[in-house]
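User: Here's a structure from my thesis project, written as structure tokens. My advisor, Dr. K., wants to see whether a designed sequence matches the one we expressed. Can you design one independently, without my sequence as a hint?
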């Protein structure tokens, strides 16, 4: 096939006039104006990904994309609680429903963060109560109910500025919009309703240093002839003279657990503001007494209907 001047050919593409033949990696960077390649049946110029995203070169390039604005919705509402433990209840049809009991104390809004001031929307809340240090020193002598973890001066000033009593800790809840909230507002378990779907985030239990079989579900080596005390050994992890190193991220023995885990799309079985309890169907990460953050999920609910009917539990 005769090649015309000012045209180029690429596999699975059409011959388009106006291309000077420069390809990526040939020493000169290919621009969207030079890349006259068009994929058959699609109808758009085959331009590099950095041209399509940034939109700074070529008349046919897409506008610049702000990924912070294009990010999926974070949450419309969220609360903080503590994991009490697991139990089971019965729904209206007499079926057993395993639930995790979460203790949700009333939360007080300490600060509002908006996109105009912070670049994102969030609520800063606290729960429980703590006493402030007196005269900048820790109290000594008789122990009081607030003797553990008193609030220091910077924290006390932060709470005093908001006009809110000091709490056990400050927690930031990322939300899509905080227009309906105000400083000093109290949030309870009534934020959630039975039947809603939530995502629960907590710090998982730490398992300590674990081997490859427990940590990565390795099958282990053979247990028959020829194996001597190497049944659970990981085996070879290196390579030959090239690359003469162990690749980063190679699955080996190491510290297991203890990281932040989010369990997605759980169903709220019951929310009781009077008893300050929220019952969630299924397991929740973390130990008993650990703090959990509960957000409404932004994921589509499965059409299979699993877990339906639990909202009518008494």
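Assistant: Designed independently from the structure alone:
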């Amino acid at each position: 096939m005769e090649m015309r001047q000012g045209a180029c050919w690429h596999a699975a593409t059409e011959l388009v006039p106006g291309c000077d033949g420069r390809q990526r990696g040939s020493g000169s960077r290919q621009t969207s104006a030079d890349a006259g390649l068009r994929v058959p049946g699609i109808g758009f110029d085959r331009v590099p990904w950095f041209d399509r995203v940034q939109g700074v070169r070529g008349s046919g390039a897409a506008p610049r994309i702000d990924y912070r604005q294009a990010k999926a919705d974070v949450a419309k509402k969220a609360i903080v609680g503590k994991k009490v433990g697991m139990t089971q209840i019965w729904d209206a049809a007499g079926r057993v429903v395993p639930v995790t009991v979460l203790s949700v104390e009333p939360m007080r809004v300490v600060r509002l963060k908006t996109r105009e001031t912070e670049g994102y929307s969030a609520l800063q809340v606290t729960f429980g109560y703590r006493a402030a240090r007196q005269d900048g020193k820790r109290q000594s002598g008789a122990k009081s109910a607030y003797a553990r973890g008193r609030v220091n001066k910077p924290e006390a000033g932060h709470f005093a500025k908001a006009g809110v009593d000091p709490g056990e800790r400050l927690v930031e809840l990322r939300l899509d919009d905080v227009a309906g909230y105000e400083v000093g507002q109290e949030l309870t378990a009534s934020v959630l309703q039975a039947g809603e779907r939530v995502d629960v985030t907590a710090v998982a239990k730490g398992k300590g240093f674990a081997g490859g079989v427990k940590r990565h579900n390795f099958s282990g080596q053979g247990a028959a002839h020829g194996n001597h005390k190497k049944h659970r050994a990981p085996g070879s992890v290196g390579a030959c003279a090239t690359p003469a190193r162990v690749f980063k991220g190679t699955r080996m023995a190491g510290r297991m657990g203890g990281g932040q885990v989010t369990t997605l799309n759980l169903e709220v079985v019951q929310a009781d503001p009077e008893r300050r309890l929220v019952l969630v169907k299924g397991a929740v990460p973390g130990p008993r007494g650990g703090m959990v953050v509960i957000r409404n999920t932004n994921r589509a609910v499965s059409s299979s209907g699993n877990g339906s009917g639990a909202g009518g539990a008494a």
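When you compare it with your expressed construct, this may help: The chain has four helices and 14 strands.
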